[in-house]
């Protein structure tokens, strides 16, 4: 019984395989063979009519035809390229000229700044010398007032401008200032004391 079932399965399998093959055969018989026959018949008719099918196919598709380039076309292309390159060269030259101009302007500005810097340094040095000289002179004046008697110094200080008198009074020793105040009128002494306290 098992053998019989196995044999039935094998027969069904062979039938299924033959059905698949028969469909392929049907397609081949109905479509492929007639198509090849029609194609062969068309080629024979074209050969008799002296028509080259392959040439016509190339003409229709445009395949295999190189672009026809004449000398005029080549010349025009070269001229266009030359004109384009010349325009590019002129543009680059203009950029170079602008950059060179900027460099020259920067160099001139640097030179001007260096000259101005040197002038300012000279002026600072001159002012420092003047300040040193003024400080020495001022120190001598203060020293002179220190050596003067209070009776002689008081009238001189009262005749000075308030700013100069304050400067000198602030530079003197406190006991010297006290002696000078003693020789001033009370109004003048009060005025200078008030000015000194406001500083």
UniProtKB/TrEMBL annotation:
Coiled-coil residue spans: 75-137
InterPro entries, per the entry: Mg_transptr_MgtE_intracell_dom, MgtE_N_sf
Keywords carried by this UniProt record: Coiled coil, Membrane, Transmembrane, Transmembrane helix
Keyword flag Transmembrane helix: yes
Residue spans crossing the bilayer: 27-49
Residue ranges occupied by any Magnesium transporter MgtE intracellular domain in the UniProt entry: 116-199
Protein name per its UniProtKB record: Magnesium transporter MgtE intracellular domain-containing protein
Source organism per UniProt: Psychrobacillus mangrovi
């Amino acid at each position: 019984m098992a053998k019989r079932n196995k044999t039935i399965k094998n027969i069904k399998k062979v039938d299924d395989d033959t059905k698949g093959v028969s469909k392929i055969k049907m397609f081949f018989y109905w479509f492929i063979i007639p198509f090849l026959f029609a194609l062969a018949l068309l080629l024979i008719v074209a050969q008799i009519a002296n028509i080259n099918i392959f040439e016509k196919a190339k003409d229709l598709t445009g395949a295999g035809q190189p672009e026809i380039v004449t000398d005029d076309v080549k010349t025009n292309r070269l001229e266009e390229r030359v004109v384009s390159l010349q325009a590019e060269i002129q543009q680059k030259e203009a950029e170079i000229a602008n950059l060179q101009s900027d460099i020259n302007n920067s160099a001139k500005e640097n030179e001007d700044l260096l000259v101005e810097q040197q002038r300012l340094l000279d002026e600072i040095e001159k002012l420092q010398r003047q300040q040193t000289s003024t400080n020495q002179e001022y120190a001598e004046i203060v020293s002179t007032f220190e050596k003067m008697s209070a009776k002689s110094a008081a009238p001189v200080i009262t005749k000075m401008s308030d700013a100069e008198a304050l400067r000198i009074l602030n530079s003197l020793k406190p006991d010297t200032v006290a002696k000078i105040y003693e020789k001033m009128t009370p109004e003048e002494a009060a005025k200078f004391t008030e000015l000194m306290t406001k500083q």
